[in-house]
Automatic annotation (TrEMBL):
One of its GO terms (molecular function) is metal ion binding. Residues 198-365 form the Hflx-type G domain. It is found in: Cytoplasm. NCBIfam families: GTP_HflX, PRK11058.1. The keyword Transport does not apply. This is GTPase HflX. It comes from Ferrimonas marina.
Length: 428
């Protein structure tokens, strides 16, 4: 697309501490991101500033130090733990004479490596193109530009304009394809809603153990590893919950603080599984020192995708990494489960998690007793189809006495189908 230094395997990491809390990033998280991308860190440059430098982001003196480190370590790429402007990126590349990558570019690169499905690849490419669109300027300085005035006019459309046009056309093509995939997803989602199958969605900070928990619950073989963004493509599996019946569990992409907006926009189709869920399972790495901050970061992304109002059950994972921590359920003042402490890796607390899910999803279960006359035999058949009949008996008048337990939504649907007739058969 345009001339840049090729990225290599050896990187100098740059981390600047800012006085503003909102600008701060985590150096350990950067190291995890870099190792997840397959790049070797050969040096770290740190510094402190009150605000970013307009030309080099880190200040002229610190930029010279970074350039010296690149020469000394023979590094191929400099990776900043911050979002750089296109101009800052270009200035640093000219000074360091190597590729410069910011936090957003690094996350995009990891996403590009992880994408497996057609939809995932399209979403990553869309995010990459939107990111590149702001970095085309001065990409072709060796080519002739259009100039005004006699004798100075160029050959028509410049290379930069050509790139911009091709990029816009490619973005339009990808959006059309994603729209088609989204419609197919919506058909499957509507079919589940018609069958009234509840949907559970796993959300949480990246590397909190969502895929390991997903595999433990569903006996699936979804890729799970101790690295950031191991899961990119959403996976859905059917599970059985006692007293609730079948449910759909969705494993989704992990969140990260200061998640690039282009990525959030590109993955909104995938995250629809989260927005449409009946219950969110917010998986938290309880052994992480920044667990509370990670919960806030996930909450901010949920607000951004308009999923912050969905009922949530906190799942504190990796209790095997804590001393004297065992599986348990924490409840609120009304006795409802709000937190479950488990270890997916060590298979601890899974029975408690299923019990909590049954409680949270089984709140709307009804216990009824009906006296059905012989002419209402078809309704008895419908109740058996719904697996709602717990016991049957008969009285002297020939009526079938049925003890029921079923979700309230199923009962409301039956009432509507019978024009309210079934309500007349209810017995105390």
């Amino acid at each position: 697309m345009f001339e840049r230094y090729e990225a290599g395997e050896r990187a100098i990491l740059v981390h600047i501490d800012f006085s503003q809390e909102g600008e701060r990033e985590d150096l350990e998280e950067l190291k995890l991101l870099v190792s997840s991308s397959g790049v070797q860190s050969c040096g770290v440059v740190t510094g402190r500033r009150s605000h970013p430098h307009p030309k080099y982001y880190c200040g002229a003196g610190k930029a010279e130090e970074i350039a010296a480190s690149v020469q000394a370590e023979q590094a191929d790429v400099v990776i900043f733990n911050h979002a750089l402007s296109p101009a800052q990126e270009r200035n640093l590349e000219q000074l360091c004479q190597c590729r410069v990558l910011d936090r957003t570019g690094l996350i995009l690169d990891i996403f590009a490596q992880r994408a497996r499905t057609h939809e995932g690849k399209l979403q990553v490419e869309l995010a990459q193109l939107r990111y590149l669109s702001t970095r085309l300027i001065r990409g072709w300085t060796h080519l002739e530009r259009q100039k005004g005035g006699i004798g100075l006019r160029g050959p028509g459309e410049t290379q930069l304009e050509t790139d911009r046009r091709l990029l816009r056309e490619r973005i339009k093509t990808i959006l059309k394809r994603l729209d088609k995939v989204a419609k197919q997803r919506e058909q499957g989602r509507r079919a589940r809603q018609r069958r009234e199958v509840p949907t559970l969605s796993l959300v949480g900070y990246t590397n909190a153990g969502k895929s390991t928990l997903f595999n433990r619950i569903t006996d699936s073989g979804v890729y799970a590893a101790d690295q950031l963004f191991a899961t990119l493509d959403p996976t859905l599996r059917r599970i059985e919950l006692s007293e609730v019946g079948p449910a759909i569990l969705a494993d989704t992409v992990g969140f990260i603080r200061h998640l690039p907006h282009d990525l959030v926009a590109a993955f909104k189709g995938t995250l629809t599984e989260t927005r449409e869920a009946d219950l969110l399972l917010h998986v938290v790495d309880c052994a992480d020192e920044r667990a509370a901050e990670n919960i806030e970061s996930v909450q901010s992304v949920l607000e951004e995708i308009e999923a912050d109002q969905i009922p949530t059950l906190l799942v504190y994972n990796k209790i095997d990494a804590l001393e004297e921590a065992g599986p348990r359920i924490d409840r609120d003042e009304e006795g409802n489960p709000v937190r479950v402490w488990v270890s997916a890796q060590a298979d601890q607390g899974m029975d408690l998690l299923f019990a909590a899910l049954t409680e949270r999803l089984g709140d709307a279960m009804l216990d009824l007793r009906l006296a059905l006359p012989p002419v209402a035999g078809r309704w008895l058949s419908r109740l058996h189809e719904l697996n709602a009949v717990m016991a049957t008996d008969y009285d002297e008048q020939g009526q079938t006495l049925v003890t029921l337990r079923l979700p309230e939504r199923d009962w409301q649907r039956l009432l509507k189908a019978s024009d309210g007739q079934l309500a007349d058969f209810i017995r105390e």
